[in-house]
TrEMBL record:
Keyword Secreted appears in the UniProt entry: no
Protein name (record): tRNA1(Val) (adenine(37)-N6)-methyltransferase
Major subcellular site: cytoplasm
UniProt domain Methyltransferase small: residue ranges: 36-158
Family (UniProt): Belongs to the methyltransferase superfamily. tRNA (adenine-N(6)-)-methyltransferase family.
Amino acid sequence: MPNPYFSFKQFTVWHDKCAMKVGTDGVLLGAWTDVSNANSVLDIGTGTGLVALMIAQRCNADIFAIEIDNNAVIQATDNKNRSPWSERISIIQGDFKTFESNTKFDVIVSNPPYFSNSLLPPDIKRSTARHTNELSYYELIEGAAELLSPRGKFSLIIPADVIDKIIEIAANFDLYPIRQTNILPKQDSSPKRVLISFSNKKDTIFAKPNDLIIELARHQYTPEYIDLTKEYYLNM
């Protein structure tokens, strides 16, 4: 039986009530996202609350985490209440497509639904979590653009094969790529995921994309991956 929780150095994430469990994608996004000088953060589709908790660990911002699934909201609320940063994290149940806020966010993050062209899995909750049926990339990017503060940053992790589409959609809403990391599971593999960050300022510089390899061999992690995640993983 799978473990109902995942322990990190400073907090524990329970995921037994959630369709999507703690995984590498969320850890990568939470560790990679630039939160320097952030006062307000929005996590879209927080699930267990993992990314919100990771960001809370390394900044003093107020964090708002929105999630549509009731069980995930309950789980994320429990997880944040057990953490050292419960007073700075607010879990909001709702549909991002109808979400409104007077706050403009310095950082917006999302580990969005994906695999939009694959067959739907039988479990409807898993379908909502894994596919773009509930929230399309277009709706996600449009909403994020409206909620970014001046010189705010929007960061997400996506399948590598949709990166060109994402950049194209973002341009429609005056969001410009400023940072990109291609994620390779192993040294001889092609990128499977991409971490990308956007700014709403056209004059920002797009740094040359870099590659991050996760493993050299089974459970033998690269120095770069260890350096990125060592403040979180227990055995890094």
